[in-house]
Amino acid sequence: MEKRLKDKVALVTGGARGIGKAISELFAAHGAIVVILDVLEEGKVIAEDIRSHGGRAEYYLLSVTDKNAVNQLCERVFAAYGRIDILINNAGITRDRTLEKMTQEEWEMVMDVNLKGVFNCTQAVVPYMKENKWGRIVSAASNVGLRGNFGQTNYAATKAGIIAMSKTWTLELGKYGITANAVAPGLTMTEMVEKIPEKQLDAIIESIPLKTVAQPMDIAYGYLYLASDEARYVSGICLTIDGGISR
Q1: Which of 61-70, 139-148, 200-209 has the lowest mean pLDDT?
Q2: C-alpha to C-alpha distance for 38 and 140, rounded to whole angstroms
Q3: pLDDT, tens digit (0-9, with 9 covering 90-100), for 140-168
Q4: Which of 43, 181, 222, 232 would bridge 36 by S-S if both were Cys, CB 3.0 to 4.6 A apart?
Q5: Is the pTM higher than 0.90?
Q6: Average pLDDT of every residue of the chain
Q7: 3-state secondary structure the chain
Q8: Which residues are catalytic?
Q9: Which one, of 221, 208, 212, 210, lies nearest residue 189 by Cα?
Q10: Residue 164 vs residues 27, 120, 121, 130, 214: alpha-carbon distances, Å
Q11: Which residues pair with residue 184 across a beta bridge?
Q12: Domains, the chain, ordered by start
């Protein structure tokens, strides 16, 4: 198999489960040195499993909301490898509730992880990418950020914000050989979706033109493209992978 990310150093936030886990595994299979950042200790098992299959991966217990910790981690990775090539801003949370019932705490928690966390990590890696005149920033949006969703005022706002930030970074960082893009997944079979009652899930699937739910690896391949040399002239886009529901 051609190694599309051979020897690239890739930071993957929220890399312990779901789509983040699939991204970590796929990038490692394509030759990347994967640094998994997560508040979940399952990330350690994912890194060990990648290494047991001949890949290169390490795990750090870290919250993307902790700016100092993020900065220190990036310094450590750069000192070890002399480069940070790819940032995958995948960490995110939901705290769903309708507008009138949403608490200030639920609003702020989602803002902190989904927006401030993306800002923290991106601001931390950019100096290292500029030094090597090459970088790929790919951030997790959602089709909810394009079309809204009942009970997700906070989540939809953050995902729309990520798309806007990516477009802004395209303008600011392009001259340094750095691209910035977003990926907007639709319904994907993660732990969160598995908890949806069967009747409700069937109704959602019926609304999807492809009549099926994405698997995490379906989304991970979009990230692989945007992180690779093949996408050198792709910046400022939001790649929608949702079975056609946002057509």
Answers
A1: 200-209
A2: 15
A3: 999 999 999 999 999 999 999 999 999 99
A4: 43
A5: yes
A6: 96
A7: CCCCCCCCEEEEECCCCHHHHHHHHHHHHCCCEEEEEECCCHHHHHHHHHHHCCCEEEEEECCCCCHHHHHHHHHHHHHHHCCCCEEEECCCCCCCECCCCCCHHHHHHHHHHHHHHHHHHHHHHHHHHHHHCCEEEEEECCCHHHHCCCCEHHHHHHHHHHHHHHHHHHHHHHHHCEEEEEEEECCECCHHHHCCCHHHHHHHHHCCCCCCCECHHHHHHHHHHHHCHHHCCCCCCEEEECCCCCC
A8: 155
A9: 212
A10: 26, 16, 16, 21, 25
A11: 240
A12: 9-189+217-239 (3.40.50.720)
Residue 187: both structure tokens together: 């319904």
Check pLDDT > 80 for residue 1.
Answer: no
Could you give the strand order of the β-sheet that contains 33-38, starting from the edge strand earlier in sequence? 56-61, 33-38, 9-13, 86-89, 135-140, 178-185, 238-241
Q: What's the CA gap between 142 and 187, in Å, rounded?
A: 9
Cross-strand partners of 87: 11, 137
What confidence tens digit (pLDDT) does each residue in 7-36 have? 999 999 999 999 999 999 999 999 999 999
Per the DSSP assignment, residues forming a β-bridge with 57 are: 34
CA distance 245 to 210: 8
In contact, 182 and 115? CB cutoff 8 Å: no
Contact 227, 33 (CB under 8 A): no
The dihedral of CA 238, 240, 241, 242: what is its sign? positive
